[in-house]
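Structure tokens please, single chain.
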Amino acid sequence: MKKYILNIFVALSVCSGMSSCSNFFDTDYSKGVDVATGLSSVNNIETALNGTYYQLFYYGFAGNYALTIGDVPTDISYWNTDKKHWDSFYTFTVLDTDSYLKYIWNYGYKVVDNASRIIEASQNLYEHSTKEQQQTLNTCMAEAYALRGYAELMLTNIFGHQVKVNGEDFSSQPGIVVVNKPVPALTQVTRSTIGQSYNAVVSDLTQSLDMFKLAGGDRGELVYFGEAAVYGLLARTNLYLEKWDEAMQYAQQALDAAKITTLTYGKDNYKALYNTETSNTESMFALAITNNTNWSASSIGTLWESYGYSPSPKLLSLYGANDCRTSVFNYSKESTATKPIFTGGKFSHFSSGNPARGTCYIVNAPEMFLIIAEANLRSSKGTFANAQKALLIVAKRNADIASANDLPVTTDGLMSFLKDERARELFQEGFRLYDLRRWNEVVDVYAINAPNIDFIYHNYKIANLTFPVPADEINAGFGVEQTPGWADTLPERD
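Here you go.
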């Protein structure tokens, strides 16, 4: 059976040497292009790029699972036990046979492999293309590098230890399989270190910006990677690497490229950010989820509406009475204090009332202001005043905070406030797990007994938590080895 590239926004099915072919979806499409010979024209490369975006926004990766895993097993999410979705992560009973992990691994590597093919094919065509075609190829390569860099960052954080934990370096531990060029089927591979994996992320994102410059800019559309989003990913990556100066520099460049200097305030205005799949004016990159193209029961919006997940009592306690962010925290008529039934939150898609249509806003301005604030607090070149200034822009979502005088006046106090502010602002965006790990927080997890603030596991050193590489990948026999001792990083009851 041949494997084909479909037309716009349909999966590019490629069998990679990263796994056995059965781990990928081989599909025969009569109107596609054979991937063995199909990437021989600019038009086909554009089609392949759209296919790679499809792999990215599939529910098995950035369209749900790869973001959900960053929120569910933390202190800010609550599961009312009504449905059995993500419960093994919430209760920390995950196994290496877990299907969510398998989807994340497989679809993450579909993005990585397909992006690599686009980059290689574009380079091969470049010399003999017209200037107009070269401009198109530059844009395709810019976006392909960004797609690969984002996928690598997500895979590294999910399947590896946090690279830095409050100054301690874990870059020598097992990371992911770094892919610079397409890997032929049945090839033996090995995992790189976490440090090498992060180097690959930085290299790809930097090359993406270089290609955008050659292309004369980006498309200027929210559902395609552009310069602002790539600067934002570099800011995020350098924050995790504890390269504070680079983090604040890239975060500011992201804001400048997006022409964003402030945020939205007031409950009605904040709620309007989540009216539709394109209404968030603070976003730099979002997935192309629409009325006609969404994941229905498998959507991330459904998770936060029908499958029993909501803000935890602890998170709710962090918001002030006049915080506009709670304007999206609505509950169904059947909801009770002891068994909350959320209606989507940031995925509510208020214009239609269908959370399945709520998109994932992947790179957003509030995160950039928070990165600038934290980097100023932790860099020797930063200033307390600049940290307050950046943090205030986000903190003013609470109408009771009007000036820097309403923020803590010590470095430790402001850092503690910032940690809570990231919880308040970034809920449902998939950052909490990595924040808790990198700060080396000792936390309580597996919330129970709503509306009380109560947990099953206490004083858990969550920085050690590492998820296993899927057993199917290990058993495929292509050289990927399991992370040693991953099961020992799960918490135990007191």
